[in-house]
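Section 5.1 Outputs to date
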Amino acid sequence: QQEHHKKITFEEELKYLLEEFGIQYDEKHFP
């Protein structure tokens, strides 16, 4: 496993994944 990016939060990772799949990210779903 490569350490090609800095440590990110779960929310940031989730947002990235949603964007990758083309899913509309809605801030209200995450407190």
